[in-house]
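Example (one chain per record):
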Amino acid sequence: MQHRTALLALHLGAVFFGLSGIFGKLALAAPLVIVFGRALFAMAALGAYTQFGEKTARLDGRQRMALAAVGLLLGAHWWTFFVAVKVSGVAIATLGFASFPAFTVLLEGLLFRERIRRTEWGVVALVCLGLVLVTPHFDFGNQATLGLGWAVLSGLLFAMVSVGNRATTRGVKPAQAAYWQNLGIAVVSLPLSIHLLADVRPMDWLWIALLGLLCTALAHSLFVASLRVLNARSASVVFALEPVYGIAFAWWIFDEEPGVRMLFGSALILLATVISARLNRSPIEPKGAGHTA
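Predicted structure:
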């Protein structure tokens, strides 16, 4: 793969990740059903890929359980994100989720006893200020504020997924890790959502299938393929555009037009994401093994 092709693949992957909220809103099913379906379709695609494509390592039971446990955090991240989408729309949900770099900085400093640099504290401050600006007034009876709260919780859970990946995915192929994580999500979410499956419309299954195949399995594959040519820091900066794509699609499809204050808050959050990516000196975890939104 050439450099230009890798960059195109990376942007395409970011576009697919940005579409997560769109497909989640188009599917009228409950968030639990969306989580189960996304995991099911992604697991099928990733399973085929690991079986017939990429050679994978042999995992023992403990490694599989650890990956599945991180998968439960990933599933909780998806669920809270889709709740936020249903409550307040794609734009606010995407921006609230984009707070995860600030949580990652704090969690890694706390759990791994890594010194938090002044610039990283600046990232946290930018995210906090951006979130304040995104919501015009904080009233938990207000849909926008409530949705932002769910979205920020989604960002916290994704930061926990990132930290969990750091501890559990060493020596494991990204697609293999993603498969076991999605398997854990599917196994746990099935009994919770099974009573709702009969009411899901065929069109909703289409949106959920696209969510699992495009926004999870394919986006992950494009991301991993691009990292064979591009460095991780460059990839992180491109993926900081994910909220931009999500907001643009929401504006186009659902007419969720952002106001001036939201745009300014969005810019601060995106700036924090870019700075956080450029400060990251170690290779980032592939998003397919713990993404997102």
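Caption: Residues 231 and 283 are 8 Å apart (CA to CA).
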